[in-house]
Design goal:
5-stranded antiparallel β-sheet, HIT family, subunit A, alpha+beta, binds zinc ion, binds adenosine monophosphate
Amino acid sequence: MTHDPHCLFCKIAQGQIPSRKVYEDDQIYAFHDIHPWAPVHFLMIPKAHIPSLAQVEGQHEALLGRMMTLVPKLALQEGCNPYPEGGWRVVTNTGAEGGQEVHHLHIHVMGGPRPWFKG
Ligand code: AMP
Ligand code: ZN
């Protein structure tokens, strides 16, 4: 598995920088966003260093499928209300014009009662 020694989210996935863990398995790590936009706001990352969605290839199909399939389970576990009255928002900022600040692929999952702090 590839890691970038200078990457913030690689360090978080490896436990070198503390985070509030939501979920972990052999390939995926999820943790609360440090500046939440919503009552529920966590990030899901692959443990392997992939800079963004722009670098995703066929070999990542199962990984991305697993991440997306985990979203409903983790969203409800973290306090999002059930669909359709509740729900959540899934966002992956990609590149400078996509608003990406941390260059390690991540999925934002946001939810909880409105109004949100942002967005
Ligand atoms: P993006 O703009 O999509 O790259 O978002 C990066 C997100 O990472 C932002 O929402 C930040 O609040 C969040 N973030 C940055 N540093 C940390 C950290 N140490 N722990 C948790 N979340 C972080
Ligand atoms: Zn990384």
